[in-house]
Amino acid sequence: MASEFTANKPDGQLTARILLADDEPRLLTMLARLLREQGYQVTEAHGGKQACEIASKEVFDLALLDLRMPEVDGFATMTHLARSQPDCGVVVVSGESSFNAVSQALRQGALDYIRKPYDPEELLTTVARVLKKRSLLKAHEHIQVRLEKSEALHRYIVNSSPDIVFMLDSQGQFCFVNSKVSGLLGYQPAELCGRHFRHIIDERDITKGIYSLKDPTISADNPKTLELRLKSRGDGNNARHFEVTAFPIDPQTWPHAGTTQGNGSGKGARYYGTARDVTERKEAEAFINYQAYHDLLTRLPNRSLFQDRLELAITHARRNRQRLAVMFLDLDRFKVINDTLGHGMGDQLLQAVAQRLEKCLRKGDTLSRFGGDEFTLLLPSITDEEDARGIAKKLIDALRAPFRLGDHEVFVGVSIGISIYPEMGTSLDQLIQNADIAMYHVKASGKDGYRFYNETMSVDATSRLQMERDLRLALERNELKVFYQPQVCSTSDRVVGLEALVRWQHPERGLIYPGEFLPLAEETRLIGQVSERVLDQACQDAARWIRAGHKDLRLAVNLSPVQVEHPRFVETLLRKVRAHGLPTSNLEIEITENTIMNDLEQISEKLRELAATGVRIAIDDFGTGYSSLNYLHRLPIHTLKVDQSFVKAIRGGEDGACIVNAIVAMAHGLKLDIVAEGVETNEQLTYLRRLGCHQVQGFYYGPARPSANILQSLVKTRTAAPVF
């Protein structure tokens, strides 16, 4: 089934017919619009099954396919196209970037591979190039048909071919070469005729080229095909890759006895052949191979290549009874910088970090980006731990100087865990895992340092796994309890609100405070379930107290980023609140600044929807994250909560108290309520009252209490002393 261009562009060129297949409607529509704007005739198929049905009825010049499609995937669609209309070229546009998938697609006949998300300009260039190449190939096929009907000379020589066509005598000297050699390599046919073919072969491939002509198995039915690097004229370093096919010529059947075109004599020809430029294909293969084993952001080896080199280094160390070291590096404070300045700046920081780290390495060391802000380092052939210690100190020192990111100057540190072969592990997995465990101990002890692995660390790691198991069971067994801490009016000492705080009633360890298990809950993605439980119980309790007569009581609930970022966050929250009969005007949700800045536009819209229903919005731990007057002004924020670390600085006029002064003054200027956390002394309370801080909470009014103790305390609406 042959395809023809069926419409004309304004410039007179024929327009190609293109079939698009993707199971994502939005991406399919965007790609179709992009191609139609260039004048192409585009047919859209929602998935591989529909694409096969369309291809059975219509003819196309090119198909752009996704690999991951339900029912009929991209590979099956390619097979159908190859069977139903083999002249239709295929370009894969897919998010599947594994080496096996890319390799299989190219082997199955894909002309190019474009990764999602794609660059529109790159995609259009690729489509134009592939269509042009397909057009040239079709032209070449037509030429071949005509040449078969022409004279004997033209059956051997294709002057109009896009490939180099040549003839060699028995000594391997050119006796004919077409003019294509001039455009591809810069040689004139006349200067090559009479010279040995080794003259244009790259030195690295000369032996292979000469040996190929001496192969006794070569025949007309079994031509010799090989890849050679051919030199461009005047520049031996600028070699291009060619696929060369050579056929022997039978002197008895060779009819030509005179002079040929191309400034050569074909009389003594013993071989003829073609050389096709495959440089682009080789470069594409090299790039795909590079992608499979390197991190494209930092240009460092990726996890796969690091593991391959470590496996080889272990084998070498075992054979030669040597030591090696594996380091696991994790950047400190990277997440804060990434969340604050954005992912673009975060990527720049990772590139700058990689460059500094590489300067500390010895020849033969391997630094890889393991994922995110984690790096691994292989130090082969070390003498003892001091070698690894010295490198670790260099790495830490290298990152101490500030990094300049645009107009920002930022600081990062690094936590390094080290394992030594064979004392601290004898296998690839052991060495990496133990270095990772040691790194986490550095994090736990203050960050920005290094530690060697020891067996006691595995015990700690086991404890973390045990706590994770217990936390999952706690969710099933309803062991998580909600306690409440009062928020008190600083002038009247009246309880105006209650903050819901989670506690874990462990069956063996007793009451566990959130500082011990919430970081683990965030790491294991259980934080969403924990927050949901707290919200449900708190809404139920608060609604009961309000019905008991405390109509103005405000409930403050902390929400995790996982909850806030969920697409149905607003709908889910309001449904829970209304299900328990809690008036929305009595609810205040507390979120952190970093949660807002992660996706300012989306979070802003959600907060406006909630505020419209009467829900109050409070910024928790204000002053510790990305504090910005811009978002405070734009968003429906009602309350700022001063972090307890600033309140603690109120001691005898410490400079740290200036931060509290600034936050309170700013809140007054923006007409926002203020809640100061962590108030423990009368001195702090007096200071905050003098500043005009509206509300306070902390141990001065007692610790958080279970719900059973709350109602009785609420009866005392005004006290001269702490009420809790």
TrEMBL record:
Any idea which UniProt keywords this protein has?
Kinase, Phosphoprotein, Transferase
Q: Is Lyase among this UniProt entry's keywords? A: no
Q: Which residues are recorded with the post-translational modification 4-aspartylphosphate?
A: 66
Organism domain of life: Bacteria
Q: Where is the Response regulatory domain?
A: 17-131
GGDEF domain boundaries: 322-455
Q: Which InterPro entries match?
A: Biofilm_reg_signaling (IPR052155), CheY-like_superfamily (IPR011006), EAL_dom (IPR001633), EAL_sf (IPR035919), GGDEF_dom (IPR000160), Nucleotide_cyclase (IPR029787), PAS (IPR000014), PAS-like_dom_sf (IPR035965)
Segment forming the signal sequence? none
Domain (EAL) spans: 464-718
Is Phosphoprotein among this UniProt entry's keywords?
Answer: yes
Where in this chain does the record put each PAS domain? 150-205
Pfam name, any one: PAS_4
> Which protein is depicted?
EAL domain-containing protein
- Species annotation: Marinobacter suaedae
